[in-house]
Write a structure and sequence with these properties.
5 helices, Protein Binding, DinI Protein, Chain A, mainly alpha, about 180 residues, disordered N terminus, 2 strands
């Protein structure tokens, strides 16, 4: 019985909300827009610039990893080529060095990967903040009552503001 009571209350609330929203919209007082944030994250010039900046920040560390990888490859080739003719002591030394370099590589790679993810998230967070600010600016400039983002199943091109926001982001990117 309690379950049906909740459904009835919810239904009445939904109906009243829909009717009042519809009446407000019919008066011409409601201006609604939609923004595809994912498209902005992919296409904004700030996204490409941020990606390049983060890749550049980590390029030196990636080069160091490549150097260690080259050393590992060289040690493996040496063991394959000379392993049978090496003394036991030299072979064990080379194998130990190979294991040490391999561990060093995996350890450094894990640290770089983690640092890269943290930095990328920082940069993406800043980009998301820039997008939200651009949406607010357009919303205020063009006097929108409501701007929706994710979770919208359909929006007509008349209310889709994604291109407008993208242009705003391009303007602010060229201004920096």
């Amino acid at each position: 019985m309690q379950y049906f009571k909740k459904i009835a209350i919810f239904s009445v609330f939904s109906l009243l909300t829909t009717l009042s929203f519809g009446a407000f919209a019919q008066e011409g007082g409601l201006k609604v827009g939609f923004v595809n944030v994912q498209a902005l994250l992919s296409n904004a010039p700030q996204a490409a610039a941020a990606k390049k900046r983060v890749e550049k920040e980590f390029s030196t560390r990636q080069e160091e990893l490549k150097g260690i990888q080259t050393e590992i490859k060289s040690l493996r080739e040496k063991l394959t080529r000379e392993g049978l003719t090496m003394s036991d002591e030299d072979r064990k030394k080379t194998e130990t060095e190979l294991l040490r370099k391999d561990r060093e590589f995996r350890w450094n790679q894990g640290i770089i990967d983690e640092d890269f993810k943290i930095r990328r998230n920082e940069v993406m967070s800043q980009l998301q903040n820039d997008i939200v600010k651009a949406i607010y600016r357009i919303g205020q400039q063009e006097k929108f009552d409501l701007i929706l983002t994710d979770g919208v199943i359909f929006s007509s091109s008349r209310v889709n503001l994604t291109e407008t926001i993208l242009n705003e982001l391009k303007k602010s990117a060229s201004g920096k």
